[in-house]
C-alpha cells in the first residue's frame, strides 16, 4: 500500500512541479539556485576579473568634495559652522538617503574607495551603507559597508564594587573625523574592496542603510601596495641597537572600534597586577575580542627615534586548538606585509611572542620620538578561502539532498534499495569533487595556521573528507544514509557548519606588551614560590562564600537570587548600590543561582530568598499553587504599575484573579525575511497565512521554502509552536471553567487542520535543526522565529547585515478584514517569596528593577560593554522602545506584542501541550484523520486535568467543589478599567 501511494505521489509531482524547478530529469538542480537570484560574492567576481585580465590601475588618486555631489546631496549640504571642524561643507547622511557623485577615469580597471566621515550615531548599532557603481551593486559585499564608531573608557582608572572587585568602566563613543576604506563588512577579505570603473564617466552612489553621520570627501585611489619587510627596512635609517623598554598594560587601551572588546579579570599569579582575593581587570580580550575587524589601539610615548621590537605577553587558548590572526598597525597603518596577518599559535600558558619570522629573524619597527598608537586588529581573512569553499560545498550538498528527497518522497525506508545513480548520474563525480576540495582546504588551513593536524577545524575537514569518500563507495545507499551527508549531528553538512563558526573566531588574551630594544624581558610566568604561596591563599579563601554566591544575610538586607551569568549580576548589584540603596535606604544582596530548580528545594526547606529574578515563566505558577509566592495584587499600586507590560504576558503568572510574578524579559515571534532575495524574486512580504501560501510556489520553484517554528522542534512540539494557530482561529485550549480542554471545538479543529496542512499539502519543511544557518545560506529566506534568531543574525551574520528585516507574525484574516496575529512570547520573570520578612521592601526593589529608567540603563550598559549578543529583551514596553536597536525593528516588535497571548497555566496544562504535539505527529507522519485524532487526545487530556484538579482541591470524587477561573487578557485589561471607573 505504501509503495503504491508513493508511486502515485511521484506521478503527481511530475505534473505539479513547474518547468525549471529543482527537480529535473536527471534529478539535478535545473532551476536557478537561490544564490543566483542576487549578486555573486566578491571572491567570485575577483576570480572573473583575474580570468579576464582586469587588474588594478596604478598611480591614480582623485577626490570628490560634498559640494560636487549630485542628486539628493545638494539639499543636504550643511553650512561650514555645522561641519564639526571640517574644512569644507559636508553632507548629512542618514534616514536611508542616497548620495551620488560623478568621477572621470582615464583607464578602466580596479580602484579602491574611501570616505571622510564624522559619526553622529552613538549607539552600538553600526553605521551602515551600500555602494552602487553606475546604478548596480557590483558584488554582494557592496550591499553593506560599515563606518566604525570609535570608543574609549569613560574613566582611565577602574572603580571597585562592594567586594573590592574592579568594574569594567562605562564606554563612551568618540566623535571625530576619520577616513575609512570600503571593506567587506565581515572583514574576511585580506584587503579593502576593489571596484571596477569604466573609462570615462562613472556614477558612484552611497546609500544609507542605518545610522547617521556627516560625510566629507570621497576618494578614488589605486589599490595600495604594502612593502615587504626588507623594503620597509631599506626605506628608513635608524639605530637598531638600543636599551629602551616601554611596558604597556593591555587592559587599558587608548581607543578601539568596538565598545565590547574589554578588559578581563583572571586569577593567575602570572598576570600583572593580580590579587588572590579580589578580581582585578588585569588582561584584555579573549572572547570579547574574537570578531574579525575589531581593532584596539594602545598609546606609547617613545623617548627617541629608532628601531624597536614588539613583544606581546599572550595566552592563546582557543577552544578548538587552532591558531588566530592579528593585523599589526603602527599609527593606523600596516608597516609591512609580514605583519598584515600575523599568526598567534595555540598555547594554553602565558608566553612572550616577539613579532618575527617563525624560529627566525625578529622584526624591527621604526618609531620616531613622541606618541604612537600600536594597534592589533582581529583578522579572520587567512581563513577566507576555507569559508568560501566550505560554503559552496554546503550549498551543493543542500541541493543534492533536496533532489534526493524529492525522488524518494522523503521516505527513509532501510529495507528499500535505490538506484540513485540512474536518476542522478553525476552523483559520484559531485561527491568526489567535494572531497577533493575539502582535502585541499584542510592542507591549506594546516599550513597557514602554522599548526599540527590536531585543531578541531582541520579535524572537521578531514572527517568530512573521510565521510564523503565512504559515502561514494556505495552511492546508491546515500538516500538511506542522509544522516551522514546532510541531516545528522555528525553529518558532513553539520561538520562544515560548525567549522564556519569556529574558523572565523579569533580570540586572544593579552596581559601586557613591550616596545623594546636589545634588553631582557620579564618572564611571562610567575616563579615557583609565588605560585605556591598564591595557590595556598586561594585554597583557604575557597572555604568562604564567593562574592555573588548565596549566603546568610541580615534581616534588613533583601536577598535576591538571579538565574543569570556573573556579568549580569555584577551590573545589577552595581546599579542597586549606586541608585536604589541611596534612594530608599534598603540594602540588597544579589546572588547567582546556577539552577532555578533549587528554588523548589529551598522553598520546601524554608530557605528561600526574598526575591528571584530571571526564572522561567512556568515556575511562579508551580510555586504559587503550592502556596510559596506572594500575590502581587495585594500592593496598592500594582495595577497602575502593571500597565508598563503587555497584558498577555501576565497569563502564566495568574491563578484566578491573583498575580504571582512580573514579566522581566519577553520573547517575540516575528517573520524574518531576506530583503535582497524577496526583492530579486519580486515576492511581497506576507501579511496573512493566505499570503504565505500564495508565495510558496515561487519560493519552492527556486529550491527555497518558508519556515515555521514547528519545523525547529524535533519530536515534541511545545505550546509556542502550536498555540498561535489555535488562538488565531479564535479557538481556545481550555473550557471556561478550566476543568476540560476545548481543542475539539470547531475553531480549534480548523486551526489544527490548517497547522498540519502546511506540511502535508503545502510542503513546508518538516524538520529544520537550525533556521539561522538556512536563513544565512538562502535556502529558507523567510520564516517565523524568535528573539534568539534576532540576536544570532545581529551578532554573527555580518555578511547579510542590512539585507534582512522583520515583519509581524502572519495571521488569519477575519470577516471584517482585520488579521488575528496572536502569538506566544514567554521570557523570564521575577517573583517575591511568601517567606520574606521584608514584603514591602521587596516590592519596592521589584518596582525599581523593572521600571523603564532602570531597564533602559541596564540594557544599554549590558550591550555596550559586552556586545550585540548581550541584547536585553526587556518586558517593559517603554524601556524596550528606548533600547539601542534599529527603530524600525522595535516598531515591528511592539506592534506584534499587541497580539501577545501567552498560554495560561492550569494544573493539567502539560497534558494539553503534550497531546497537541502528539496530534501533529499522528496527522503528519501517520496520516490519521484530524477529528478522530483530536477526539482520542481529548479523552486523555480531560482525564489528567480531572486528576490534577482533585490533587489541588478543585474537584472531589469527580465533582467540582471549588471554581477555577482560567485567566484571560480581558481580565488583565479590566484592572485599569476598574481603577478609572472608581
Automatic annotation (TrEMBL):
Source species of the chain: Mesobacillus subterraneus
Signal peptide span: 1-24
InterPro entries documented for this protein: Bact_solute-bd_prot1, SBP
Protein name: ABC transporter substrate-binding protein
UniProt cross-references to Pfam families, sorted A to Z: SBP_bac_1
Entry keyword Glycoprotein: no
Keyword terms, alphabetized: Signal
